[in-house]
Amino acid sequence: MKRITTILLCIAVGLAVLGVPAAVGAVTGKLEIVHWWTAGGEGEALDAIAALFESLYPEVELIGASVAGGAGTVAKGVLQTRILAGNPPDSFQVHAGMEVRGHILAGVLEPITDLLDPAVFPKAVLDLCGYEGEVYCVPINVHRPNTLWVNKEIVDELGIAIPTLSDFDVFVAACEKAKAAGYVPLALGEAWTVNHLFGSVLLGALGPDGYRGLWDGSVPFTDPGVTLALERMKTLVGYANVDHAALSWDAAAQMLVDGKAVFNIMGDWAEGYFKAKGWEPGVDFVWASAPGTRGSFILCIDAFGVPKDAANKEAARAWVKTIASIEAQDIFNPVKGSVPSRSGADKSLYDVYLIWSMNDFATSELVPSLAHGGVLEALAGDIGDIINIFVTKPDVAGAQGSLNRAAIDAGL
Ligand code: BGC
């Protein structure tokens, strides 16, 4: 314990030198936060930011209430039950966009506009965190879901060129090559990762404007781009591991580390995972935009807010205020595999992939995430069900009809 106290003291002194705002007044008590960061990379990133928070607020006991299950598939249900019972945690992980909007409209969160400086956050990000001029959650990062991960040793061995892998047909040819050599071409995981993949495939088939249109009703799901997306989905799943429904996202990523699979299309929390497993970006693994999506950046933003019914609001406010600081974001994101949601980053702390992602974020078309709270939640759930049935029984016309009905049911 003494050693931990000394480390915390050193961090606090270091931060004071760096100019991190000192904790004002004594904040005390327990701070319970619900999150789903339990896999490699995620856990380490959370530990890093928790150490910073504890150094700033030594009298607060931070309790990380983790609920395993990628993309928050399980955590969201647990959270909803607690909210309905009037017993929310003091703060919780939530995606900026339609997911947090649901909590705002339901009156779960309180405005925290006074806790951040709007000038340092891009408008595109802050707009997803608020409603009617108020901010309701603080974004800790920006993840890039439409990323293709590549086992470098295998593609070198097979003579597959990386720069053109973002072209769908080139990618399919590479999968053929990988299959012929006895590898699993595309590592895939459980149900939500199938929906995640479909998000990238829709974007690739429709382009950013068409893809955006799906979510505001200006492009119907009867569009030929959706037909193309379903056909592409069928092709891609044909290259995936047959046991995918039983694998978590990190177990699928591990197939690359184990040299069993060549590619994985996953958000860049996989980058954090690979690094936690000792892989080096650019050396052991490389990346490209998911096939068809070059020039677009799907937004997946983790954020935290303060519930109106939080037991320890003062500590919750201290928590979100901390994660709004660049020092916190520079501690968290290099480990998590994400980039800061605000300006002021010390770029020397970010690896070659993360610098690539930062540049891509600054220059690409930003579009919402299907599987990570960016679009209407009910519709995203229905699409997840439809696409998971589709991958076991690939009936393109049938699935497209179901997608269209789901969109109409969602009011689009
Ligand atoms: C979250 C990430 C998390 C990933 C896997 C996403 O929905 O935004 O922070 O690492 O799910 O669980």
Describe the structure.
This protein is an alpha/beta fold and 412 residues long. It has two domains: 181 residues, Periplasmic binding protein-like II (D-Maltodextrin-Binding Protein, domain 2); 199 residues, D-Maltodextrin-Binding Protein, domain 2 (3-Layer(aba) Sandwich). Helices cover 47% and strands 14% of the residues. Bound molecules: beta-D-glucopyranose (BGC). Beta-D-glucopyranose (BGC) binds next to loops. The site of beta-D-glucopyranose has 12 residues, from loops.
Fourth-tier CATH superfamily name of the largest domain: Periplasmic binding protein-like II
The percent range for strand residues is 5-15%
> Which radius of gyration do the C-alpha atoms yield?
21 Å
Largest sheet geometry: 5 strands, mixed
Order of H and E elements? HEHEHEHHEEEEHHEHHHEHEEEHHHEHH
Distance between the termini: 56 Å
Oligomer: single chain
CATH architecture descriptor of the largest domain = 3-Layer(aba) Sandwich
Mean of all residue-level pLDDT scores: 94
Task: Tell me which ligands are bound.
Answer: beta-D-glucopyranose
Low-confidence stretches: 1-21
Strand order of the largest sheet: 2-1-3-12-6
Overall number of structural domains? 2
Residue share in helix: 40-55%
Number of alpha- plus pi-helical segments: 16
The CATH topology annotation of the largest domain reads as D-Maltodextrin-Binding Protein, domain 2
Provide a brief overview of the structure.
With 412 residues, the chain is of the alpha/beta class. The chain has 2 domains: 6-143 and 302-344, 3-Layer(aba) Sandwich (D-Maltodextrin-Binding Protein, domain 2), CATH 3.40.190; 147-298 and 363-409, Periplasmic binding protein-like II (D-Maltodextrin-Binding Protein, domain 2, 3-Layer(aba) Sandwich), CATH 3.40.190.
